[in-house]
Amino acid sequence: MAVQTVASTSTPTVDLGPAAALSCRECGHRVPLGPVFACEECFGPLEIAYDFSAYDTEELRRRIEAGPANIWRYAPLLPVPADVADKPNINPGWTKLVKADNLARELGVTGGLFVKDDSGNPTHSFKDRVVAQALEAARAFGFTTLSCSSTGNLAGAVGAAAARAGFRSCVFIPHDLEQGKVVMAAVYGGELVGIEGNYDDVNRFCSELIGDPAGEGWGFVNVNLRPYYAEGSKTLAYEICEQLGWRLPDQIVIPIASGSQLTKIDKGLQELIKLGLVEDRPYKIFGAQAEGCSPVSTAFKAGHDVVRPQKPNTIAKSLAIGNPADGPYVLDIARRTGGAVEDVTDEQVVDAIKLLARTEGIFAETAGGVTVGVTRKLIENGVLDPSLTTVVLNTGDGLKTLDAVAGTGLTATIRPTLDSFREAGLA
Amino acid sequence: MAVQTVASTSTPTVDLGPAAALSCRECGHRVPLGPVFACEECFGPLEIAYDFSAYDTEELRRRIEAGPANIWRYAPLLPVPADVADKPNINPGWTKLVKADNLARELGVTGGLFVKDDSGNPTHSFKDRVVAQALEAARAFGFTTLSCSSTGNLAGAVGAAAARAGFRSCVFIPHDLEQGKVVMAAVYGGELVGIEGNYDDVNRFCSELIGDPAGEGWGFVNVNLRPYYAEGSKTLAYEICEQLGWRLPDQIVIPIASGSQLTKIDKGLQELIKLGLVEDRPYKIFGAQAEGCSPVSTAFKAGHDVVRPQKPNTIAKSLAIGNPADGPYVLDIARRTGGAVEDVTDEQVVDAIKLLARTEGIFAETAGGVTVGVTRKLIENGVLDPSLTTVVLNTGDGLKTLDAVAGTGLTATIRPTLDSFREAGLA
């Protein structure tokens, strides 16, 4: 992948609120805010460095609580301008934190079990949170096209956000994607380009396009806008704590695809502690994968610091990243906080989707089946403490992965008569 | 359909908050609160009569504004106990009122155009609002099974609400429903019974079951619990006005299936006026149907007071009620407020779904295509005034009616090379 340096593209006057610079996660080298994602010194990932020094804790808390019922209530902590809520965007976030007492009973959790249900976002996945940040960065850098490669949730999130914000969008997908997924991405009216090849070919092509003059003015949300995009996951941490009454959960179970979401939730929790918005006390972070794509879980169990790539083979397609960029950071965080990384089989994923639907009326996508299934497994194995407050993430919507539960069907078939009804034992 | 009288089933001590009695919409005859839906005197429809006499306007407003971000903020105006928010339910409502400036520009609306987007509800349709009321009535009357007949949104809403509340659920559907719709209803783990017959057979069977001892303890949300169920639609009126800053919209476009939703939104607006929560000024209510099921629109245009049944044939299946029970009341309201009832073709429905997605990033189900399409037609015909504040309802989610836009697809197919990209004119 071509690494862009900052010189040609940075805009010193860019207003992204408290975002002060980009900083390399590996070597700490700082560069001005710009559409770059890799360190020019060491090729490490760049992330946002903030200046929060002017904030008074209680004033900040009041400002957040008086804010809109979406992620922009946290604008003071995000790489966005202060007036972001007035700009046209799809306003994701502030999704329900559901107290899951029925599920808790089934799993034996006594300390309080909560499901953070991100299926309530506008396009019904957590991707709306991250795309919303990328969109603001694209505005700030003067981009006119919003783009990504995707086989699912991200395509819809980019299409919808671009439509509302008046951006051109261009989403790249493998040309032979299932018709249903094509429709979900195409309905927003942007360019939807099928690439003759597999998902790896699509990604390789996108990387070429970013390095080429043909890609000028294009913001690839999870490539050249990745440092901004990734920050959107912090809002999950903020919301969970605020919804718990400005309190850290004891344990949190997070799905792992690239691992970015988990690392940014940890970053968000650390920020809340440093800002004094929550009491500083221990929390444990658990990562969840599907067995058919479990490179981080495998490394965790083997005690490795390095993640060995896998070829994905699981129904949890939104998590099927065989070579997760943030895998090593996930291992660090799970170990530092006393958490763990675990995986479940596809069969356990399906069982967990049904369990969550049956107990709480929440229809999760496969990634939600992964986190609920891993939670169950961690409790059974004595790794997750059922006497502590536990939050489980559902990051998407079952309507998008209907195939996973296609075996679910009628419990009875009867003739339209009371006799037939009684015979079936339904009375 | 067997008409139950109140004597055997009423519970004089039932606590449903401000709900004081049931009152016949036709003859005004009052009976105590109970699981009945038709007047014993004249067979007219029963609806809830409230006692709001103790409310102070400003105190009520403060109480609402301090309430939860769901329909229970309006508990003082609904047939539910005061502590409803503490009971296990799926907490629908407080969905986004989206200021649709891009759509307004395309339609030539200058007075402010808003989309009330009920795809944000837990099971992604407005049915969650009405089922939530029926559930509280079922609790109050000691029912243990929540039931309905449905071919779509209602099945999911009942399944999810029952699961979370710890009720048994039993949903009746035609046995040959498409597999995708079966899965959406079955995933919540309740009984899902296929009836060998068409939807009319299913409904006839349900009516028999209600009159039979086998149906004891069963709450059919839209039959014996219908007076409570229907009130849920009032919350759309409350939310729209509160989200507009406690102001009535000038014009509102509402889809018509049975017509119940439209009549209850009007009831909700009238209540807000009487309670002093909004200024009393004129508003116009417009009804929207698909041409393939347009009995109310046909009657409106012909100047009739009576609605002649039709055999539905439209892609807008959630509105396909050929003999709408509340049709005459809808005609009354449209005429009294200076509104209208209009219909659009299936092709116009699809165009409107795409228009809304392309301009605002909102993917509506076919019912949303009907309201947006009708809005466009009413403006073109000079019936709807584009200089006035207008609210259009989207009552469901495009993910549930993907087939309607199945023609949407790739805008280009290319090889994974920059040359191929340039040749396709995408740069």
From TrEMBL, chains A, B:
Transmembrane feature ranges: none
Tell me its EC number(s), please.
4.2.3.1
- Tryptophan synthase beta chain-like PALP domain location is 92-396
Top-level lineage group: Bacteria
What's a single GO MF annotation on this record? threonine synthase activity
Q: Does the keyword rRNA-binding apply?
A: no
| UniProt xrefs under NCBIfam families | thrC
Q: What is this protein called?
A: Threonine synthase
Species annotation: Streptomyces camelliae
